[in-house]
Amino acid sequence: MPRAKELFVPLKLIVAAAAFACSTLAGAAFAQDPTQFYTNRTISILMGTSPGGSYDIYGRVIANHLARQIPGKPTIIIEHMPGAGGAAAGNFIYGAGPQDGTKILLSHALPLMEKLEDPKAIRYESKKLNWLGAYDEIAQVMAIWKDAGAASIEDLKAKPLVFGSMATSHLSYQWAMVAKDALGAKFKVISGYTTGGALNLAMERGEIAGWAVAWESIAVGKEDWIATQKVAVPLVFTLERMKQLPAVPTLLELAQGPERDVVEFLANGTPIARAMALGPNVPADRVAAMRKAFATMMSDPEFLDEAAKRRLGIRFRTADETLALVTKIVDASPAIVDRVKHAVNPTR
To answer: Treating both helix axes as pointing N-terminal to C-terminal, what angle do 53-66 and 284-298 enclose, rounded to 10 degrees?
Structure first.
């Protein structure tokens, strides 16, 4: 019978050969051009939310149209990784996720979280992600229910209204608190609602006067609220006025003095909350191919037609424009960041 030592050498050779074969296959995959790599492949759009809601709607519309613009025309599926307001998905795409171009992040406002949240929960660097561009900007608006007795900026300043929000790390809370600070308003904000649906119901019941809601949450599925004036929208939280509400001012327009810097900091994060990115170590040729595919989709009539039918806003920003906004946030001075932290959560 052969001794164990005599068996050991061949086993080492087998393991080494297997490892060499795996590394060779991996090397071959990375050596493929984008068309070769993506042909007959399934890739995924990863989002940091559960199914349902505006991110899911956008993700599925994009999945319907992006594949035919990518060399090799891969199949695209949707994946959900909820947690930490989108930071869990950001951490994954930056670190443990595959760096071969098979996962595309449908981003939340990652740079804002990078600067404002507990650094122990943030394991990504927004500037090192390979941004494809932004398909829109997250448009939060101040919605006030018709029975609240308030419908204007002056009402916001003068009346002791009660607004609701999700967690204190959520934009629904942060925008309401920043508006209160910038306008010198008297309203208070109650946080802790779990979903936008719960906030809408609380508004209907009169538990709260309103909340800083994502526009799609009332424009898609609650169209009658706008048409029949069940809600008033005196203020929007975007970089520019919304084309759907051209007469409604942005908070950025109204903010004066030091408060304007705080508002601008948050507003710079709104396009990144509707952007897409690849991991930091994806091969450059695949990044370039994906950026071209994304930009082409943004002007594709079929894509724009489906978005319009679903009442989804589209406002394209290139990869360079998106990275410029990311950089503005990430490179902001510590003094500005401290002021923003205090504005969004004065009790810190």
So the answer is: 100
Residue 71: partners with Cβ closer than 8 Å, 6 or more residues away: 33, 34, 35, 38, 289, 293
User: Could you report the per-residue pLDDT of 180-200, keeping only the tens digit for each?
Assistant: 999 999 899 999 888 888 899
Q: Are 223 and 215 within 8 A, CB to CB?
A: no
* Residues near 159 by beta carbon (within 8 Å), at least 6 away in sequence: 149, 150, 186, 187
Residues 6+ apart with CB under 8 A from 88: 48, 81, 82
Length of the chain (residues): 348
Domains belonging to the chain, first-starting first, are 37-137+271-335 (3.40.190.150), 140-269 (3.40.190.10)
Tally Cβ neighbours within 10 Å of residue 5: 7
CA distance 322 to 40: 30
Does the pTM surpass 0.90? The reply is no
